[in-house]
Design brief:
Helix content is 34%, strand content 27%. It is of the alpha+beta class. Strands 13-12-9-10-11-14-19-17 form an eight-stranded antiparallel beta sheet, sandwiched between helices. It has a five-stranded parallel beta sheet with strand order 3-2-1-4-5. A three-stranded antiparallel beta sheet has the order 7-6-8. Helix 4 runs antiparallel to helix 5 and helix 12 runs antiparallel to helix 13. The termini are far apart. The structure holds ligand MV4. The site of ligand MV4 has 16 residues, from strand 6, strand 8 and strand 13.
Length: 447
């Protein structure tokens, strides 16, 4: 096992990683920008190294600075958390080349899944259902128009280097195809320096359902059920739940088995999430995330498995310590992403925290690096806390979530807790009757 791990992240996830290391007897090294000197993860870590100025590109994304911090502290492993360098295959390569262990998937798997065309081709070959669309990237415009006609409008043009919703163009008819293709190509070139695009049938009102997996690199893979992440605005998830209210046991087992079989063939290592759109009882692969995700605690709640601990064990060379038939799914969990932002305009609201009181009690977990007096810096993501509530069933979970939101006090700054309290009162939400556009439609109606 590692003696010392460097945590290449900040905020609540840096704290989450520190906690797992601590419980495993691993020393921690925090790295931080000059804006984060008084951050909770810096205070708690055994050692801390300042790696640069506030802008992420000069600190948390600065690979030489992170490696230098690993060098001077004698760290053995580097955990990238989510965001920042977590899905950068070149970073994973450089970390390993310098003799450290990247706590995550192999460089090759990160690279493969980062190329959306190659990822789709690969998983399709391995038996995972994909959205009907062009056979790989588009080469010729006339050929592409014929493919769009075959797929049937509306079609969605996606960037091969994109993901997370960046570089997509919706086309409603053949008339608009040429202009949309040109626009998609030039936007993709500008954003990713790559103009490769591909086509898919546009699904109108799907849910976003993702399957959590963990593998140890020997071909042993276990799935940990799904999360429903359909409640989102502008590709930012707002609230996630596990299990999905849209799936029955048969659908869950079917997609889990398909994913496990596919990833076993490529001997996937570490944590991963396979993302699907789900419409009319069918799953359609869209992307795979090769990282620990923000919403991993809801899976931890319903399985009782510490995902970060298992991920670190595997990175240290241990085989998976459990099998699929050891996994017992229990109850229902919901995560609310608490952001320092206006609950209506969504404008960020950094500043100094006044009173701070986090809810607690049975089935309530708050992952947050906030404390009273802490200044939320303006330079980073606005996520300041994750409220994760677990109950025997979805209704108990909602009751517990309602009371937990009532207890939460975050003074001094504006947060979106009132929006969460409002959303979970809506009949569609109570009924589990929502899709990826539901929240944006709801907010538009309120104006
Ligand atoms: C789609 C789609 C509809 N049809 N693909 C957006 C992010 C990227 N990961 C894939 N995305 C979508 N792909 C087809 N063929 C709708 C979306 C989409 C979406 C997907 C998941 C979660 C939120 C979303 C919000 C808008 C659009």
């Amino acid at each position: 096992m590692f003696e010392k791990v460097l945590i290449a992240n900040r905020g609540e996830i840096a704290l989450r990683l520190h906690r797992a290391c601590r419980e495993m007897g691993i020393q921690t090294v925090a790295v931080h920008s000059t804006a984060d000197g008084d951050a909770m993860h810096v205070r708690l870590a055994d050692e801390a190294v300042c790696i640069g100025p506030p802008a992420a590109k000069d600190s948390y994304l600065n690979m030489p600075a992170v490696l230098a911090a690993a060098e001077i502290t004698g760290s053995e492993g580097i955990h990238p958390g989510y965001g920042f360098l977590s899905e950068n295959a070149d970073f994973a390569h450089i970390v390993e080349e310098h003799g450290y262990t990247f706590i995550g998937p192999s460089e090759e798997h990160i690279r493969l899944m980062g190329d959306k065309v190659e990822a789709k081709r690969t998983v399709s070959r391995l038996g995972i259902p994909v959205v009907p669309g062009s056979d790989g990237a588009i080469t010729d415009e006339d050929e592409a128009r014929r493919q769009a006609d075959d797929i049937g409008y509306p079609v969605l043009i996606k960037a091969a280097a994109g993901g997370g919703g960046r570089g997509m163009k919706l086309v409603h008819s053949a008339d608009a195809f040429a202009a949309s293709l040109a626009a998609a190509r030039s936007e993709s070139k500008a954003a990713f320096n790559d103009d490769a695009v591909y086509l898919e049938k546009y699904l109108e009102r799907p849910r976003h359902i993702e399957v959590q997996v963990i593998g140890d690199g020997t071909g042993k893979i276990v799935h940990l059920g799904e999360r429903d992440c359909s409640l989102q605005r502008r590709h930012q998830k707002v609230l996630e739940e596990a299990p999905s209210p849209a799936l029955n046991a048969e659908a869950r087992e079917r997609i889990g088995d398909v994913v496990v079989k596919a990833l076993s063939e490529i001997k996937y290592t570490s944590l991963g999430t396979v993302e699907f759109l789900y419409e009319d009882g069918e799953f359609y692969f869209i992307e795979m995330n090769t990282r620990l995700q923000v919403e991993h605690p809801i899976t931890e709640a319903i399985t009782g498995i510490d995902l970060v601990r298992e991920q670190i064990h595997i990175a240290a060379g241990a085989p998976l310590s459990f099998s699929q038939n050891n996994i017992r799914f229990a109850g229902h969990a919901i995560e609310c992403r608490i952001n320092a932002e206006d609950p209506r305009s969504f404008a960020p609201s950094p500043g100094q925290v006044g009173d701070f009181h986090a809810p607690g009690g049975l089935g309530v977990r708050v992952d947050s690096a906030l404390y009273s007096g802490y200044r939320v810096p303006p330079h980073y993501d606005s996520l300041i806390a994750k409220l994760v509530v677990h109950g025997y069933n979805r209704n108990d979970c909602l009751m517990r979530l309602t009371r937990s939101l009532e207890e939460f006090v975050i003074g001094g700054i504006t947060s979106n807790t009132p929006l969460h309290a409002e959303l979970i009162r809506q009949q569609d939400f109570i009924d589990g009757n929502y899709h990826i556009h539901w929240l944006e439609q709801y907010l538009a109606q309120q104006d």
